[in-house]
């Protein structure tokens, strides 16, 4: 049995146990909604057949629709000197130097991830997530959150100003090497994720194109929206409820500032410097002193379509199951609106190594 089937089976088991009175048709609905994560094709993968796909595009396709692990340990051996011909010839080379700089900003002296890291993870979502199947062929992971001044004025993007400035700084420093802001944002998000102790090393691709056109409005979720609205919003991004449950775990590292003034700076679990599953436990449970749980996280965690995944992530092997699912869903998220998947390069090897163990003080 494949890992995802085991996860799905155990999730179904938890769901049935959690809702003893549940009828058969609702269980069928759950199967459809929760089994196996998101699996729709996106971008140019929708119209290019396999014979025309590059090896990287085939890999991405198999991550999106099959059970291919979206994480990798592959390492960059013998990185060429920055200004050498060898570096110019390898599109990943400059990224190794950029990521080295990002890592310094994202890792605190005690090894945990910093405020800049959490902001970068959120920025990755807010650039790529401003896309929907129903709003025409623009938006998504295109750097518009940096390029279009209108976007940063939107209420849901409040708090991202500083990390956007950081992106502009990095772009100013590195753009002569031919990078895009869209890639910079997504590489920063995956670097920040793996820098957080226990975070997955997510496959990271480059070659996205930038757009200066503001993304469609109204596609970034509000923490006050009802669960059904949030679920539909993510479905329109090709993300199923179980995928949404995995992505919400990014709040394991977050600290809110603008939702509740009285709890300014409060994290969403007790260990915001570590990519652990405490967020799932504390969101499902009664919380803890000095944390602030988002209303949306609470209602989604209790919704029949997400509850099984929340339970799975808190169960045996929960960390591994969450990291696996998060990486798979994040690859999808990071490619929303990208219509040149067939031209992307896999530069995962530039990422720092994952830290799979962490001792709490
Ligand atoms: C229903 C979906 C979601 C809602 C309603 C939501 C809402 C929020 C809110 C209100 C904040 C606090 C902002 C502040 O006050 O500073 C926040 C922070 C954050 N969100 Fe989400 N979010 C959602 C999904 C996601 C996803 C899918 C990701 C990433 C994949 C993500 C990553 C983060 C991170 C890392 C932070 C912390 C930012 C920081 O500490 O600077 N969120 N989110």
Automatic annotation (TrEMBL):
Domain of life: Eukaryota
EC primary class: oxidoreductase
Cited PROSITE patterns: PEROXIDASE_2, PEROXIDASE_4
Domain Plant heme peroxidase family profile: 117-252
GO BP term (any one): cellular response to oxidative stress
Family: Belongs to the peroxidase family. Ligninase subfamily.
Protein name from the UniProt record: Peroxidase
Keywords: Calcium, Disulfide bond, Glycoprotein, Heme, Iron, Metal-binding, Oxidoreductase, Peroxidase
Annotated S-S bridges: 92-347, 113-196
GO molecular function: heme binding; metal ion binding; peroxidase activity
Catalytic residue positions: 126
UniProt: Ca(2+) 2 binding residues: 252, 269, 271, 276
Sequence positions that bind Ca(2+) 1: 127, 140, 142, 144
EC number(s) stated in the UniProt entry for this protein: 1.11.1.-
Cofactors required: Ca(2+); heme b
Lineage, opening ranks: Eukaryota, Fungi, Dikarya, Ascomycota, Pezizomycotina
